[in-house]
Amino acid sequence: TGSGPGGIGGGEKGDGRPAARDPEAERAKLMALVDVGRVVQDGEPNWMFVDGWYTIGPFTDGTSASLSSSYTPETVVDLGATYRGPDGRTLKWTYRREPRPGTSYFSDQAGNSVSYAFTYIKAPRDMTVWLAIASDDASTVILNGDQSIAGPTWHETEKEQSWLFSFGETIEGNKSALHYRGYRQARLKEGVNSFLLRVENGPGRSSFAIYIRPATQAAGQ
Questions:
Q1: What single string gives the DSSP state of each residue in the chain?
Q2: Other Cβ atoms within 10 Å of 14 Cβ, number
Q3: Residue 141 has pLDDT above 90, yes or no
């Protein structure tokens, strides 16, 4: 385990003091997450919905400046850490698995804020994959702590408006609920890969979805 971005380590607690390191506990957390993580099937032509995530947020100072700020989960992922949130509430990592392919939501919401989602994906070998990313609002994927993948822009969304709904998802009847959608290629290593998703939120609710498949054909096919 590591204490860099996307790793599991002793972050700062809500009172700002460093958390005590417990290597065995960190390993146990890692192995539990590996069991949670999905496996990319070699040669599988269909999209795999990433259905299980640990999420935390919202981080905000109450202004739009929050959207350009970086917060502790981008430096270290400590699933046992707590942080001070808006209105003095406590922010902590919570696990959620979606019952069917579609969209994932953050359990807590606030305007002008940043939230994070974290999981592991296993790959049978070193491989290039397509990521189909949707988020409300803008997002960034940090893969294995060092591969930063910017989410799609609004101009891409206009060209790729329908991809999410080809999976039969209507997002509470509102097809404009996920404003940004698009495709990105990424490189997975054999074994366990960490995914940290940063999602910015302006007004309203915040949500996201990631689908993965091997890059054996064009993303839109």
A1: --SSTTSB---B-TTSPBPPP-HHHHHHHHHHHHHHSEEPPTT--S-EE--EEEEEEEE--SSGGGGG---GGGT-B-TT-EEE-GGGPEEE-EEEE-SSSS-EE-SS--SSEEEEEEEEEEESSSEEEEEEEEEES-EEEEETTTEEEEPPPHHHHHHSTTTGGGGT--TTT-TTSS-EEEEEEEEEPSEEEEEEEEEEE-SS--EEEEEEEESSS-TT-
A2: 13
A3: yes
- Which one, of 112, 97, 119, lies nearest residue 58 by Cα? 112
d(CA 71, CA 198): 10
Q: d(Cα 55, Cα 53) in Å, to the nearest integer?
A: 6
Q: What is the pLDDT of residue 62?
A: 76
pLDDT score, position 129: 92
Question: Which of 55, 79, 77, 52 is CA-nearest to residue 144?
Answer: 77
Would you state the torsion angle of the CA atoms of residues 47, 94, 58, 132, taken in this order, to the nearest 10 degrees? -10
In this predicted model, what pLDDT tens digit does every residue of 176-191 receive, in sequence order? 445 566 788 999 999 8
52 vs 103, higher pLDDT: 52
Number of neighbours of residue 219 by Cβ within 10 angstroms: 17
d(CA 137, CA 177): 9
CA torsion 49-95-106-137 (nearest 10°) is -50
Structure-token pair, residue 119: 């999981």
